[in-house]
From TrEMBL:
Gene Ontology molecular function: any one: metalloendopeptidase activity
Record's protein name: Peptidase M3A/M3B catalytic domain
Species the sequence originates in: Arabidopsis suecica (Swedish thale-cress)
Obligatory cofactor(s): Zn(2+)
UniProt-listed PANTHER family: MITOCHONDRIAL INTERMEDIATE PEPTIDASE (PTHR11804:SF79), PROTEASE M3 THIMET OLIGOPEPTIDASE-RELATED (PTHR11804)
Keyword Transport in record: no
Superkingdom of source: Eukaryota
InterPro entries: M3A_MIP (IPR033851), Pept_M3A_M3B (IPR045090), Pept_M3A_M3B_dom (IPR001567)
Record-stated family: Belongs to the peptidase M3 family.
Domain Peptidase M3A/M3B catalytic: residue ranges: 253-684
Length: 706
């Protein structure tokens, strides 16, 4: 199916639709949400949609006249750019905007544009024009030729080459899959589950900001009194078992019964997703069959480096075998530590124990106090760290620019410009970093506008938003990040830089629009900077004294980092295998998905499966990364090789940054992914395996001492 891409300007009716409707947000100038004039009010989404459809219709008419192949590709890119600006803006709005009216209108816009995309994806005139352009590849630039090829493939992956009856079924299935994915996500948000814990003293005080007080009536009577029992209220806490709260409770609560209760509840909801997931598996399998594939995994993996689920599964199983001995050792060490701490030599280690005891072991062995660590990472200083990083690597400045009236969606939002002294502004990044009610619950980079070449003298700058959920403690006005949150911030900033530094002719390949199993490499690479003292000492300052973070403390953090590397690797392999198995070839008779997940856990991890839990029903990566979760492990391998062979010796030098930018970032997806990797890090970064490509694992396994 046609990718959601943005636009370029053909030589017709030179109405600068996007330029006219996007303002850079000069201070004092009134504009709309994200700088789009349309979005001064929530109802503006209706006009945004209507104008995008009108402009796209003009471009479709132009393409139907079969202009030159170069003009066809430009016009196709403009159509997708025009449509994608609306879709991306609507997605960011519905995930982050505090005004319900804006969210509702954004939802309507997303649905309407999704319907219009089906119309475009089944337009045979556009398909014929793209095929013509692909045949004229000798008349095109390399990037234009690659764009033509990918557009043709996207059309065919949408089923346009099928007969009308089959195409209608494919479109219905695609719509159904879209709706099921949305339902799955909404169920997670609407039903996080909860546990009531009494008395309140069972919950550590520093976690009280994550829970809500609740009360129950208790009966009691005066000692020696014959009067009827009197009632009193006992205070407890209601714990919502959303992933973030669940993680904190499991890490910090010494009461094993509390940990068990929240673990079981948090891994058993939302119940409605059992049925939704079954329907999603069936619909995706039926779609893949219509497209001539054996499975949805075949359909999804084929365009990527791996090429085949067999290649993926072989890679995962080999990793599983490699890490198992070390993971078993780690399990025994954690179990023995628990037995020592609880004074029970026969105590068994359970899944709800893992986070609690591994955190304790890391702290005790490496003398790491997480509260002390967090005191050196106030959020404003972490943003300074991002500034130091881009200036050191790329000679660019990352600075705050004023928001125009109407441009922002919340007072917490900052707007940053990435500016190069010779090249000018490279792009804009909104930062929405604080948690709040009804906001997207995780951390992610959201596209708003892709970069592309408009003319020989004009470039459409990328615009995106980095969204996180860092929380303010109730007893402090300063938001301090624990180190895992610092790592997440740098991870997402890696995605943002991929978009900001990309300089493709067509937004079809802008930034992160690369093969799925390459897309996570930059984010994983930039995680390394969150651990490197050479950068940390330049921004990590104590929130009250201003003291630079001690090198000894960073060394302790690094010592704790890979203490349970095999256990974590097992977990990621397990997740990826679940994804492959659920969307792989389907048995003739219905299978029990929960039983399959339990068996995979027993085979590929050292941990018990807790009967009655169904962790997979809120594994949201099954939606966006269906049959593609393995890409995280590919990315870890690529990033480790690049870090050790290119960055580690001098990670903050302009030479290192220039190499990363010139060999990788600036190309987006405009070059073959294997070529990008080998140009940057040499041929040893990948190897051919059967019909596909797998990453070299040597650097990563050595790094993790596996």
């Amino acid at each position: 199916m046609w990718k959601l891409t943005r636009r370029l300007q053909p030589r017709i009716n030179s109405t600068r639709w996007l330029i006219r409707n996007f303002q850079s947000g000069e201070a004092g100038d009134t504009t709309g949400l994200y700088g789009f004039d349309h979005l001064k009010t929530a109802k503006g989404f209706q006009r945004f949609v209507a104008d995008a459809i009108e402009r796209s219709g003009e471009l479709v008419s132009y393409i139907s006249g079969m202009p030159s192949s170069q003009e066809i590709i430009k016009a196709m890119d403009e159509i997708s750019d025009t449509v994608c600006c609306v879709v991306d803006s609507a997605e960011l709005c519905r995930q982050t905007h505090p005004d319900r009216e804006f969210v509702d209108e954004a939802n309507k816009a997303a649905i309407e544009m999704n319907d219009y995309l089906h119309h475009l994806n089944t337009n045979h005139t556009l398909y014929a024009a793209v095929k013509k352009a692909e045949l004229d590849s000798d008349l095109l630039t390399k990037e234009a030729s690659r764009t033509a090829h990918h557009l043709r493939m996207d059309f065919e992956r949408g089923g346009i080459h099928l007969d009308p009856e089959k195409l209608d079924k494919v479109n219905n299935l695609t719509t159904n899959i879209f709706q099921l994915c949305r339902e799955f996500s909404e169920n997670i948000a609407d039903d996080p589950g909860h546990v009531d814990i009494f008395p309140a003293s069972r919950i550590p005080r520093h976690l009280h900001h994550l829970v809500n007080p609740t009360y129950r009536s208790t009966s009691g009577g005066s000692r020696g009194s014959t009067r009827s029992a009197h009632k009193s209220k006992q205070k407890g806490f209601r714990i919502n078992t959303d992933p973030r709260t669940l993680s904190s409770i499991l890490q910090w609560t010494s009461d094993e019964e509390v940990r068990k209760m929240v673990y079981i509840q948090g891994n058993s909801v939302p119940h409605a997703n059992h049925g939704v997931l079954e329907k999603l598996i069936t619909a995706r399998h039926e779609l893949s069959q219509m497209m001539g594939c054996n499975s949805y995994a075949d359909f999804m993996v084929e365009p990527n480096l791996a090429k085949s689920p067999k290649v993926v599964t072989s890679f995962l199983q080999e990793l599983s075998k490699t890490v198992k001995p070390k993971a078993d050792e780690e399990f025994i060490a954690i179990r023995d530590f628990k037995r020592e701490k609880c004074g029970n030599p026969s105590a068994e280690l359970e899944p709800w124990d893992e986070t609690y005891y591994t955190s304790m072991m890391k702290s005790s062995v490496n003398d790491v106090d997480t509260a002390v660590v967090a005191s050196y990472f106030p959020l404003p200083q972490c943003i300074e760290g991002l500034k130091v990083l881009v200036e050191s690597l790329f000679g660019a400045t990352f600075h705050t620019v004023p928001l125009a009236p109407g441009e922002s969606w919340h007072p917490d939002v900052l707007k940053m410009s990435l500016h190069h002294p010779d090249e000018g502004d490279l792009g804009y990044l909104y930062l929405d970093l604080y948690s709040r009610k009804d906001k997207y619950p995780g951390c992610a980079s959201f596209a708003i506008r892709g970069g592309r070449k408009i003319s020989e003298t004009e470039y459409q700058l990328p615009v995106l938003a980095l969204v996180c959920n860092f929380s303010r403690a109730r007893d402090s006005s300063v938001v301090k990040l624990n180190h895992s949150e610092v790592e997440v911030l740098f991870h997402e900033f890696g995605h943002a830089l991929h978009s900001l530094l990309s300089r493709t002719d067509y937004q079809h390949f802008s930034g992160t629009r690369v093969a799925l199993d390459l897309a996570e490499m930059p984010s994983n690479l930039f995680e390394y900077y969150a651990w490197d003292y050479r950068l940390l000492k330049r921004f990590a300052r104590h929130h009250s004294t201003g003291e630079t973070i001690p090198e000894k403390l960073v060394n302790s953090l690094q010592g704790a980092r890979n203490m349970f590397a095999a256990t974590e690797m097992q977990r990621q392999v397990f997740y990826a295998l679940i994804d492959q198995m659920l969307f792989g070839e389907q048995p003739e008779t219905a299978r029990d998905v929960s039983h399959l997940v339990a068996e995979l856990k027993r085979q590929h991890t050292s941990w018990n499966h807790v009967e009655g839990t169904h962790w997979h029903i809120r594994f949201s990566h099954l939606l966006n990364y269906g049959a593609g979760y393995y890409s995280y492990l590919y990315a870890k391998c690529f990033a480790s090789t690049i870090w050790q062979s290119i960055c580690e010796e001098d990670p903050l030098s302009l030479n290192t940054g220039t190499l990363l930018r010139e060999k990788f970032f600036k190309h987006g997806g405009a070059k073959d992914p294997a070529e990008l990797l080998t140009d940057l890090a040499g041929k040893e970064i990948i190897s051919v395996h059967g019909e596909g490509i797998i990453p070299a694992t040597t650097y990563l396994l050595n790094e993790l001492r596996l």
